[in-house]
Amino acid sequence: MTTKESEAQFVDTADLRIGMFVYLDLGWMKHSFALNSFKISSQEQIDTILKLGINRIRWSPEKSDPEPIRNRLPHESALATVEEKVGTGGTAARVALAEAMAVDAEVRRQRRENLNVQRESLEACERQFTSATRSYRQVLDTVRAQPEAARAQTEQAIGSMVGKMLEQEESAIRLLSENSGEKASLHSLNVTVISLLLGKTMGLGAAALNELGVGALLHDIGKIELPERLRWSDTPFNNAERRLYQAHVEHGIALASSMRLSAGALAIVTQHHELADGRGYPRQLANDQTSSLAHIVSLVNHYDNLCNPANPALAITPHEALSHMFAQMKRQFDAPVLTLFIRMMGVYPPGSVVELNDGRLAMVVSVNSSRPLKPRIVIFDPRVPREEALVEDLEHSPNLGIHRSMKPLQLPKAAFDYLSPRQRMCYFFEHARDTRMGMDVKA
Predict the structure, then answer these.
(1) Whole-prediction pTM value?
(2) Are both 28 and 169 inside the same structural domain?
(3) Element housing 59 (H / E)
(4) Does residue 10 share a domain with residue 159?
């Protein structure tokens, strides 16, 4: 063994980067590399090492490429520079080191404080989402016996939501944790929240937003008349089952009529499966034959069904859903509404897993509807504890951008565990001006 090899140190496999010279202390049949020692040249090699199931690995700093500046946080670079100077001795250098360490501690404290603010914001959103879920369940439980009381409860819940939204000068679409709400209510609440945000972006007034919200929340109410197996089926329907399922619209019209919904809300329940090209159901109405509020709910309903299908294996990412709707389904939706929807959600909606232009991996956690190209992201950095995760607002990081969207399963295991991409996309809204987006750490 050479002198340099004897000086090899150990590093956590989660901290591996391209340019490191590493040693695999394994038998040659236990890995797929040609040699037991080599310089890492690609992310694929890192992914392969991570799959070996080892936590630490030998490496040689002497044989490795210098660490790129971008891999160091600004305060860490300053601290490292001072530490190098301390090696030359002198009281001034030691004082400088103490000051640099104090700056480092302050940066970490501020990061934790920002994340605490973010958690409080997240918890507030989830409380409101849970409250709306509870109201929706009560409506479903009472609508047959007391339809007008169910309408009053729906209008009260939507009125509260619209009032909060209109109080906010700018609203951000917020990704919630997967344990928010319940499966039976998730779709209706998602459609309601996103429809209201889109309606607000379109400049609708309070009265129209209230009609939109009531119709969006109740758009699928007719499903309570379906057999349980058809409500949440994760297998393809045969022709008879499809006809039974599509009858939920007629059931919904009957229930909405008994509730004495407004004309605008009733139109949404009636037309939320109609398509602009006249190929929807139940009446194959074209775009000019349907309500402008129904245009919104029809589009948002389809988006959420792509992201949150009954069978999770069929789910596509928010970015893929928008791309698919724009490229393959443009004629099925009102063109101005679709354009505004994509602009509001951003090219990378909340929940999207992305690779940044500096090679780091991240997840979009919030999009400001007025500045959709500059989302807030949480960044995977194995040197930073998950509870102190790095949060970047791309609006304030002009040199940092998104290079491409990724599927969650393309992430290395360490990044997947750190970012915790969602299987269910669950959204709410919050005040964009006060938002400092970060991780919602799972218990």
Answers:
(1) 0.72
(2) no
(3) strand 56-60
(4) no
